[in-house]
Each structure stands twice: as structure tokens, then as C-alpha cells.
Amino acid sequence: MTPSHAHCDRLDLMPRGLFITFEGLDGSGKTTQMRRLAAWLTSSGHNVVTLRQPGSTALGDRLRAVLVDSRSESALGPITPLAEMALMFADRAQAIAEVIQPALDQGKIVLCDRFTDSTEAYQGGGRELGSEIVLDLHRLLCANLQPDLTLLLLPSLEASLARARSRNQRTAAQAGADENRFEQEEDAFYARVWRKYREIAAREPARVVLIEGDLGIAEVHEQIVEAVAERLLIHTQDA
């Protein structure tokens, strides 16, 4: 048996990892909750990989600077909704090839801050491009890779927007990083995003765990741990 064949056999025997995504509006607490979940999983002996979208690869970080920096359009001109969506998928395809799929093949737990649900909510809903084009592109460019579990955090729209705008203004003042491009949108844009997220949750209840309301950090973490522990048990039984 050649070394390459032996390597393939070992990969075939290795259980696939678990892919968990975090979704919600900016200011919903995704980043904090993903960090807490990663710590809980690591302390439980799991091998965890974390990333965010856009970003987390060399290409993705360059694309993130274009997509979320409010100064982009003054330098580049208006970014059309279709171009914006195409850049999101370029980032995602790179992240899948470079980070996500290799980690899953190695049996790791991948935690991702945003995935295609974000594109469906923000570009499909917020930009009014519709869900069909987003889902078609996901099938074509992302090999239709689906999360095993999606944790959708949906505090009230007003609370999310207030926290996101305050946080980004504070970050811009302290670090000079400006990621306010989406926060400059009108509230009507975010209302469409919020409604699209609810639509996704209703369409895919087996995958999406919806955590609603203006809950405390510890309370949200408890609900997340409960959902993840249940999915881990199912995943172990299926392996």
C-alpha cells in the first residue's frame, strides 16, 4: 500500500468533525457567545477551530476590509448589491477550502461567526436580492456545505442596532478600525434582515436553533451549551 493510499484510508476512518455557525444581527452577541462556547468545548476536550466571515484567510481579510469598512465606497465608489454578494461568496469559498473543510476532515469542531445564512439575510433580505440566487450560488460555489447546527441570536432589533453602532464607534475611536459600513444602513434595511433570519429559522428548524429576546450573556450561553451538547450526542451516535 502506498503512503498516499494509507493516508486516504485513515481519513476515511476518521469521523467527520462538527460544523457550527453563529448568526444574527451585529450587536446580537455572536462573537461573545462563540468565544464562550469555544472555551467550553476546549475544556471538555474537543479540538476547536474558530473563524469569522468575511475574514480568517489572507484573501478573506482583504475582502473584509472592502466589505465592512465604511470608507470603502468613498475610495472605490458604490458597491452594488450583486458585487457585494459575489465578494461574500469569494470569501466563503476560500474559507471552506483553506480552513473549514480541512478541519472537518480532521474531526475538529468548527465554529464560524456567520455563514451563508448571513448572505441570505443581508443581501437576500436587506438588499432585496431574494433567497433563490443566494442558495443557488451556495450550491455552485460552496459545494452546498451545510452547518450541522446554526445558533441564531435574535435580540430585539432596537437593542441589536444600538449595541452594534455604539461598539463600532468605540472601536473606531480606540483602534482606528472602521467597520461601520453596514451600520450606516437605514433601520428598514435591518428590519428586512431580521425578518429574513426568522424566515430561515422557520424553514430549517432541524438545523437552526433560534434564541430570541434580550437575554443576559450567561442565559444565552446556557441555551447554547444545551443545544450543542444535544447535537454532539447525536453526532457521536451517528459516527
Characterise this structure.
- The longest helix is centred in the middle third of the chain and has 25 residues, at 81-105.
- The chain has one domain: Rossmann fold (3-Layer(aba) Sandwich), CATH 3.40.50.
- It contains ten helices and five strands; from the N terminus they run αβαβαααβααβααβα.
- The protein has 239 residues and is α/β, with parallel strands linked by helices.
- A five-stranded parallel β-sheet has the order 2-3-1-4-5, with helices on both faces.
- It starts with a helix and ends with a helix.
- 61% of the residues lie in helices and 11% in strands.
Strands across the major sheet, in which order? 2-3-1-4-5
Strand tally is 5
CATH H-level superfamily title: P-loop containing nucleotide triphosphate hydrolases
- Bin the strand percentage: 5-15%
Number of domains: 1
Instruction: Give the biggest beta sheet.
Output: 5 strands, parallel
What percent of the residues sit in helical stretches (DSSP H or I)?
55-70%
Overall average pLDDT: 88
What distance lies between the first and last C-alpha atoms, to the nearest angstrom? 26 Å
CATH architecture: 3-Layer(aba) Sandwich
Give the oligomeric state of the chains in this entry, treating copies of one chain as homo and distinct chains as hetero.
single chain
Whole-angstrom Rg: 18 Å
What is the name of the CATH topology?
A: Rossmann fold
Compressed to H and E, one letter per element, the order equals HEHEHHHEHHEHHEH
Shape: globular
According to CATH, what is the class? Answer: Alpha Beta
Give unreliable regions as ranges.
Answer: 1-13
Q: By helix and strand content, what is the structural category?
A: alpha/beta
Counted by DSSP, the helix tally is 10
